[in-house]
Amino acid sequence: MLLDGVLILIAIIGALVMWLRWNYGYWKKRGIPYVEPTIIFGNMKEVITGSTNIGVVSQKIYNQYPGEPAIGFFNMRQPVLQLKDLDLIKAVLVTEFSNFRENAMSITKQADPILGRNPFFLTGDEWKEARKTHTLNHTANKLKTLFKYIEEVKDDMVNYIKKNIGRKFEAQDFSGRFTTDVVSSCVFGVKTCSLAEEDSEFRKKSIEILQMGWKWSLFMISPSIFSILRIPLINKGIQDFFYNLVKDMVEMRKNNKLTRSDFLQNLINEKEHNFTMMEMTAQTMTFFIDGYATSATEMSFLLYMLAIYPDIQDRVRNEINNVEKLDFDTVHHLPYLDAVFNETLRLYPAGVVLSRLCNQDTTLKGGNKTFEFKKNDRIEIPVFALHRDPEHFPEPLKFKPERFLNNANHPALLTFGAGPRACFGSRFAKTQIKTGVAYLVKNFRILPGTEDRSMPTVNNSKTVLLSPDKEMSVKFENL
Asked: Which of 7, 121, 132, 401 is the most exposed place for a label (fewest CB within 10 A)?
């Protein structure tokens, strides 16, 4: 009996091992070079265990086969094709978009009523409609209307720093408070005072949005589990907070016949769609999450790079001082500030990888090879790795803004993606970040908060977005 039991156990373990390894010959059969996977984790052990940021793991895969236009790897048991060749990447994101139109990650509205309505996760006609709504609300004219609210927050920030000269600020926290105040005003019409009120309830809720912990790690690996088991990425308390906020603001405006030139008002005025309260909440939170979180990350690295490179900061200041007025138009016509912005986001992009699904069999050429993409093949575009590839950007670990002075549209720069699924909020992000930074540089000298002047490393995976491995602080002094 004991022997029979042992044999059965061995057979079960053997069958389990075979099942776990069953798909690991996928890329070999297709003649595509690949990184040898380990059982259970595939090539994603560091991501699954939370020890390393997915962008850094993606870069390790990228560096395995120099010169190859694409590399296969495994997300647990799922085969993924990482694209390295720029022609292949352009085809997937732009010219052949109709064959790769869906993100590889999605979540249903039943699982998460907020993110399930976010254009990033939507598919098909729902994505088209959501993209249309957000694109119409991110035109230059709409952003010009919102600029006065950015200026109000900018004034509050400058006055706050004048009262706190020499104080050390953690760069991400400081930037997050600025973008929270900007976006809450532009989206909801709410003045949140996150800088002055350090225990602001609104600021606390904003931080909680991205504190997904194990959820995000699991979602990156197996998003379908969340839809099947109806597990929300954003917890119920956060959903309720913003739902009630939107409901109260809409009712207050309607009951008192009030209007305001902001994103929420645009939704209220949209007669064609007649949005439900939950749809309004999801739409406003899409704008809020994109505008607050990613912009805060990007702004924090930009401030720190200016702090540790004082000569570059001085050059930005000279450019700003040579314009008569810092308004919406001039903020977008400061070539050197633009170059510094692009170089910062090259090194520290908010989105470190892009993912797509092939929705029908397609043949594409990359390098000197032809690739047969099969329906449901998962594709990865390794943004972080591309941005640090010396073939595209010589001396990639050096901070050299001048590389973008005459080439702002480098094909390997994918900070905001490319094609129809590119980030529609990029113009707003650039507007608030550049405005905030321009006025800080104009009024103060930005210094590092510690004696350390080294460039930040970003191996950890503490949050959904890139975050530095060690303290990244700044302080301000009068000019």
From this structure: 7
